[in-house]
Specification:
It is a single chain. The protein has about 400 residues and is α/β, with parallel strands linked by helices. Helices cover about 35% and strands about 25% of the residues. It contains twelve helices and 20 strands. It has a seven-stranded mixed sheet. A five-stranded parallel sheet has the order 10-4-3-14-20, sandwiched between helices. Strands 5-9-6 form a three-stranded antiparallel sheet. Strand 3 (about 20-25), helix 1 (about 30-40) and strand 4 (about 45) form a beta-alpha-beta unit. The longest helix has 30 residues, at about 335-365. About 45% of the residues are buried. It binds flavin-adenine dinucleotide (FAD). Flavin-adenine dinucleotide binds near residues 24, 50, 141 and 280.
């Protein structure tokens, strides 16, 4: 038996040697999985297609559940240097008239884990500080895998190979590992584009720790304090899926889309350099029931890509990583440990995917009557109901 960093005896370790996991993808899910697996005594190799680890990415909300999971791994976001605790979360009309606030702060206080907004590269930095970047092989694009008698072999496009006891496909939305498990699949496209950027920003209504979601007809705008004088904003607009996929308009087109919206919305777009704006089509996939086979499993967006409406894609990947490590540590057989992980995560991940899809549909309403009914519901739904709904999403059992 091997003793781990947690001091617990781990039953999954093959006699006489440390088991090895090959993780494909050094995104939020892959890096967190590497930290978590190492914590339970598994040797980890991470293989990442990109040639460097500094994404041009923008901001991200990490809700209380994700913070609980990260903290259980000893990952410190060092909020004094990176990110910002969410103090207020408000829904507003396009013109800035308030609709309702969400009780995220109260829930965070009750759970002892706040929700935070952070730049993606800051989160990645915190994960790498814990992991040590020597564990990540860059420029390694996984092509396919072959289960073997004692584990699994992965082949890369440069002709290299990696061998391990288990393979964790954390290679995101267009996962090569998933493709081999399931065959080709088409994404689900609800028909809107999402523009995003981070920028230095100040405005009287851009208060410390604010998250402000503005709703217009078939359009939304999010304005989020990620700390240290920086705003993360995103905007959406309904359009045919093919147009959203191929969108290559400029900042002027985005500014036109939000003309007449609240002053702070227009100002955030105005001060953002054109090159800082990223555009992605809204896409997810129908929920996949089977995430693995034999020595292979999936994690994060590779397993359950979701639309962004709950701000839980990365959070769910982080939760996966903790449950994966717990399941392997408790298993007598590694492959059985992977199946336990999958069955423990299925219901929660399905709920996140399905709810994100439904909420996104409602949020992007265009016609006046459905919008009026939606806004009235949100305005009048009793506070305890709102609290309960959010509480269950934001709670993660982080005990080891
Ligand atoms: C507009 C937008 C806003 C979002 N906002 C939020 C939010 O506020 N909160 C939140 O929690 N989530 C949010 N998400 C979702 C979140 O970004 C994802 O759920 C999260 O990044 C998933 O992490 P991952 O590690 O599973 O995948 P990814 O972050 O996609 O990482 C996958 C990694 O695998 C690598 N890779 C891919 N293929 C290969 C290969 N063949 N070989 C080797 N490496 C490979 C990629 O280069 C990448 O580094 C948002 C998403 C979008 C699009």
């Amino acid at each position: 038996m091997t003793r781990t960093e947690t001091g617990r005896k781990d039953r999954c370790m093959p006699r006489g040697r440390v088991p090895k996991a090959i993780v494909i993808g050094a995104g939020i899910g892959g890096l967190t999985a590497a930290v978590a697996l190492r914590r339970v005594g598994v040797d980890v190799e991470v293989h990442e297609r990109a040639s460097d680890l500094w994404p041009a990415g923008t901001g991200l909300s990490l809700m209380s559940n994700a913070l609980s999971a990260l903290r259980s791994l000893g990952i410190d976001l060092a909020l004094e240097r990176r990110g910002r605790v969410i103090e207020t979360f408000q829904f507003l009309h396009a013109t800035g008239r308030p609709v309702r606030s969400l009780p995220l702060k109260e829930i965070g206080d009750r759970l002892g884990s706040p929700s935070v907004s952070i730049h993606r590269s800051d989160l990645q930095q915190a994960l790498l500080e814990k992991l040590g970047d020597r564990s990540v092989r860059l420029g390694a694009s996984a092509m396919d895998f072959t289960p073997t008698a004692d584990g699994v072999r992965v082949c890369f496009t440069d002709g290299s190979e990696a061998h391990g006891d288990v393979l964790i496909g954390a290679d995101g939305f267009r996962s090569a590992v998933r493709r081999q498990l399931t065959g080709p699949e088409e994404p689900r496209e609800p028909g809107y584009v999402c523009w995003m950027a981070t920028t230095p920003f100040s405005h009287p209504r851009f208060t410390d720790g604010c998250v402000r979601h503005y709703w217009g007809p078939g359009q939304r705008f999010g304005l989020i304090d990620i700390g240290h004088g920086q705003a993360y904003w995103w905007g959406t607009k309904n359009m045919p899926p093919a147009t959203a996929r191929a969108w290559n308009g400029g900042k002027a087109e985005i500014a036109r889309a939000f003309a007449g919206w609240a002053d702070e919305v227009r100002e955030a777009i105005r001060v953002t350099p054109e090159h800082a704006i990223v555009s992605v089509p809204a896409q997810d996939r129908p929920f996949l029931e089977r995430w693995g086979e034999g020595p292979v499993t999936l994690l994060g967006d590779a397993a359950h890509p979701m639309l962004t409406s709950l701000g839980q894609g990365a959070g769910t990947a982080v939760e996966d990583a903790v449950v994966l490590a717990r399941s392997l540590a408790a298993a007598t057989d590694l492959r059985q440990g992977l199946r336990t992980y999958e069955s423990m995560r299925r219901a929660r991940a399905r709920r996140m995917v399905d709810l994100s899809h439904r909420v996104s549909h409602i949020e992007q309403y265009e016609r006046p009557l459905p919008r009026k009914l939606r806004d009235a519901y949100l305005r009048w739904v009793p506070a305890p109901v709102l609290y309960r709904q959010n509480m269950s999403l934001l709670t993660f059992d982080s005990s080891w």
